[in-house]
Amino acid sequence: MSWTKGQLLWVRAGREPGGVIFVLRKRLGNAVRRNRLKRRLRHVCRELKLPAQESLIVLAQPSATTSSFRRLRDELTGLVACLRVGDGTS
């Protein structure tokens, strides 16, 4: 299981079904910045309407904290699509 890498985020399929895990390291900034990014990513995942049996691990890169919501949404949507194509679940 390898990471699908973008400029802002890295994504890979989880081992257990159902849910999204966000990995936001302290080097991304203080708690306010990390929590704001986590809220944005949660909202994007709600928009994606992932199936209950699908799980993701999302690793944020430092540039993600200063990027726009639209850019985060576009990148995460594209990475999830690439991940699905790679697994044959599209």
From TrEMBL:
PROSITE patterns: RIBONUCLEASE_P. Keywords: Endonuclease, Hydrolase, Nuclease, RNA-binding, tRNA processing. RNaseP catalyzes the removal of the 5'-leader sequence from pre-tRNA to produce the mature 5'-terminus. It can also cleave other RNA substrates such as 4.5S RNA. The protein component plays an auxiliary but essential role in vivo by binding to the 5'-leader sequence and broadening the substrate specificity of the ribozyme. One of its GO terms (molecular function) is tRNA binding. The keyword Nuclease applies. InterPro entries: Ribosomal_Su5_D2-typ_SF, Ribsml_uS5_D2-typ_fold_subgr, RNase_P, RNase_P_CS. Pfam families: Ribonuclease_P (PF00825). The keyword Nuclease applies. GO terms for biological process: tRNA processing. This is Uncharacterized protein.
